[in-house]
Specification:
By secondary structure, the protein is mainly α. Helix 1 packs antiparallel against helix 2 and helix 3 crosses helix 4. Helix content is 84%, strand content 0%. It starts with a helix and ends with a helix. The protein has one domain. It is built from 4 helices and no strands. It is elongated and about 90 Å long.
Length: 118
């Protein structure tokens, strides 16, 4: 009887140890995923900040044409890179239609879009 209890206790301990290990692995992967998301968010924010700094600097220097060109170039790069992929986005998240609509009013943007498509 003692042998049976010892075997049962060993099996329960083994199962609990395995389950604990699996949970630990899940937690470790979740922590890595969160870290990756935070790094990605920081990278995106840094890029937006660099573009904003350049735009504000050129505006403050009174270089409206240069600012216009800088911002139009960024829109054209996005449009060229993500226009096809945006089809899977919900309509309110799509930027390509807004970029296309603005290009009707902005000759600089229209020119940058033509450059990007070549």
């Amino acid at each position: 009887m003692k042998l049976l209890i010892s075997i049962a206790a060993a099996i329960v301990t083994l199962i609990l140890g395995f389950a604990g290990g699996v949970q630990f692995q899940k937690m470790r992967h979740a922590a890595q995923d969160i870290e990756h998301l935070l790094q990605s968010e920081q990278s995106e924010q840094r890029y937006a900040t660099v573009v904003s700094l350049a735009a504000l600097d050129t505006l403050e220097a009174g270089q409206l044409d240069k600012t216009n060109s800088l911002l139009a170039r960024e829109l054209a790069v996005y449009h060229h890179a993500f226009h096809e992929r945006e089809a899977s986005f919900p309509e309110q998240q799509r930027l390509a239609p807004q970029i296309d609509a603005l290009s009707i009013k902005s000759a600089t943007l229209k020119e940058e879009l033509q450059k990007a498509s070549k």
